[in-house]
Predict the structure of Alcohol dehydrogenase.
Amino acid sequence: MRAAVMWGPGKPFEVQEIDIAAPAPGCVAVDLHSCGVCASDLSLTTAFGQPTPVVLGHEGAGIVTEVGAGVSSVRAGDHVVLVWVPPCGTCAPCRRGDDYLCANRRSSADARAGRAARPSPLSVGGTSIHQGMATSTFAERTVVPANAVVRIDDDVPFPVAAMMGCAVPTGVGAALRSAKVRPGDDVAVIGCGAVGLNSVMGAVVAGAARVVAVDPLPERRALARTVGASESLEPEGLGDLRNMDVVIDAVGAPTTVSQAWTAVRRGGTVTVVGAGRPDQVVEINAYELFHDDKRLTGSFHGGISMHRDLPILVGLWRNGRLPIEKLIDSTADLSRINEVVAAQQSGKALRIVMTPRP
């Protein structure tokens, strides 16, 4: 099958034929019809310890083609979204309903922590290829545990379904689940990439009275207005923003976290959904933390349980509350992945969804 292989940290992708094993017991094979390039995919090998060679990608949707022994949750022919935080169902976070924080999730940090990675089904010429995020959606097919897919209605277009694998739940969930935006709130969103724009839409769904979108690119600010932001600002204007009920930081840099902290009112909430780097530190004044009673929260995967919440997201999309199509610039064959990466990193495109199967 075709896959986009990264042979060294931060190297360009090489689209080539590789081998993939049949699904083992408890696993399923999925033919991938759409996949998105998320910014975190591109930093895994350079900032988060993902070994190479690797097939990256965690935002994908397709059709189950084969199931391993013991699998009863899905069957061949089902349309599914890949889940990059597959819940074990037995650890403490899963038992309390926080399965997006599953303690038994496998990730690129396993090697750093000394944990054994699950054997990869991918190889080329006898050389094992790592499975990025344990999903590897930059390929025509993937093999994953059955709990790493969730059924989605057949009428959802694959590009929209792929976005529901990461950008949509992470951004919408940051507003609805993590920040707990309430009707009438004044909300600011820093960073209008795919996750930030979904946070804008989530704040609108939650009933925010005012939604301020902050981004350096005028095209992103304009797009934020089309999906529900009431106003927009360049980052230079953040210094004048005050008394917000909620600020969602979709960048995650120390500077933006500090700016969000200043912009939120006493008793307000700052939610950081942007993926900060492991070596970055945010300093908060201890007295202000106590005196102003502000809340600083993280938001991993938007606090979304895919197996529980995906039908909610689909319902909001189907009824026009989440206009996800407006966030998709175009589609492109997998062979153009390096062009897609360049376009998204430069800001020329927000999200170009790739079609692995020609």
